[in-house]
Amino acid sequence: MKHGFFMTGTGTGVGKTFVSALLAEQARAAGHRVFAFKPIETGCRIVDGMLVGEDQDLLARVAGDWQQGELRSLYGFVRPVAPLVAARAEDRAVDLEQIERVFARGAADSDLVVVEGAGGWRVPITESADMGSLAKRLGLPVIVVGTAGLGTINHALLTVEAVEHDGCRAALVVLSNRPEDDLGLATENAFEVQRRVGCSVVLASELDLANVMQLV
Questions:
Q1: What confidence tens digit (pLDDT) does each residue in 175-201 have?
Q2: Is 16 a catalytic residue?
Q3: Fold of domain 3-213
Q4: DSSP string, the chain
Q5: Per the residue annotation, which of 2, 16, 38, 136 is the catalytic one?
């Protein structure tokens, strides 16, 4: 592995998968081998008797569609809730060591690794571990993704504080602005977050792989 990032969010539905897929697509377009991996996904659908994680499937496809089996979809749960809660409902448990082993296999020959967490930094995975625990075990710099509108300054700053409190490095904050968002407000929010954190802050519409690669 030459470059790798752990993607976390300021919450659920803030644009993590969009940003992860965007980086993977840019890397593939530049000729890089990409491993895009979401080890845990909740809210999966049953299609033709198979459990399908839409985020997991999308990331594998934009990475080149070479990932199969555990490298494509490791843990999937039906209920759209925190992984610990979803696992309990199915009388299952997430094994962080298994995630590490699969991560190591996928990362071995890859130029860029993008690992996407489920939900935010403090989302519980097991009785004693949260998403931050997983990120720390994988040892990757962290990209924090948040919305671009009202409330994002507080959420982004709290997430960066939590990342750094856990001994991980926040490498970048991405505010995932959408076409309907007020670009002026999004830009102002990015500026205010930038003034208070020790890492770069960009809008998703300005995200550039070459600049991201320089952060490691």
A1: 999 888 899 999 999 999 999 998 999
A2: no
A3: Rossmann fold (3.40.50)
A4: --EEEEEEESSTTSSHHHHHHHHHHHHHHTT--EEEE--EE-S-EEETTEEE-HHHHHHHHHTTS---GGGT-SEE-SSSS-HHHHHHHTT----HHHHHHHHHHHHTT-SEEEEEEEEETT-BSSSS-BHHHHHHHHT--EEEEEESSTTHHHHHHHHHHHHHHTT--EEEEEEE--TTS-HHHHHHHHHHHHHHSSSEEEEGGG--HHHHHTT-
A5: 38
